[in-house]
TrEMBL record:
It comes from the Eukaryota. The keyword Protease does not apply. Its main location: mitochondrion. It comes from Amphiprion percula. Binds (via the PDZ domain) to isoform 2A of SYNJ2 (via the unique motif in the C-terminus). Interacts (via C-terminus) with RALBP1. Interacts (via PDZ domain) with ACVR2A (via C-terminus) and ACVR2B (via C-terminus). Forms a ternary complex with ACVR2A and RALBP1. Interacts with MAPK12. Interacts with DLL1; enhances DLL1 protein stability, and promotes notch signaling in endothelial cells. GO terms for biological process: cell-cell adhesion; establishment or maintenance of epithelial cell apical/basal polarity; receptor clustering; receptor localization to synapse. This is Synaptojanin-2-binding protein. GO terms for cellular component: basolateral plasma membrane; cell junction; mitochondrial outer membrane. GO terms for molecular function: protein kinase binding. InterPro entries: PDZ, PDZ_sf, Synaptic_Scaffolding_LAP-MAGUK.
Length: 141
């Protein structure tokens, strides 16, 4: 996802009122510290219990924040985005790309990542194990 094409059905506007502990969520990402491969967007990494976001219920971990009070977050550093949140005022409007929800399988709280071990890697390990077993078997006979 390059941040330029989004289904309108997955983009929502969420208005939050800053509480005593802020907006009640943490973010990751930015052009200086990509969280999702080939995407420098800003993502919700944690929703704080009893915070403004948790009480509202619409913002979820893994959602991508596209704009704060109408200011687009495309091509911004993490620090710059944190400053935008800090100075956004008491009433904050977010434009959010909802994390895709899959119909089959478990739903996680993290953005989708590539698996750390590829199927080809697993196949190579299995082939190596088979070769070792064959070698041991030949030496015994």
């Amino acid at each position: 996802m390059n941040g330029s094409l989004h289904s309108a059905a997955n983009v929502v506007d969420i208005k939050l009122k800053r509480g005593p502990a802020g907006l009640g969520f943490n973010i990751v990402g930015g052009v200086d510290q990509q969280y999702v491969m080939n995407d420098s967007g800003i993502y919700v990494s944690k929703i704080k219990e009893d915070g403004a976001a948790a009480l509202d219920g619409r913002l979820q971990e893994g959602d991508k924040i596209l704009a704060i009070n109408g200011v687009l977050l495309k091509d911004r550093t993490h620090k710059d985005t944190v400053e935008l949140f800090r100075t956004a005022g008491e009433d904050v409007e977010l434009k959010v790309l909802k994390k895709p929800r899959h119909m089959n399988g478990p739903t996680g709280s993290q953005p989708d990542h590539q698996p750390s071990v590829s199927y080809l890697g697993i196949l190579a390990v299995l082939a190596g194990a088979a070769a070792v077993i064959a070698f041991i078997y030949k030496r015994r006979n």
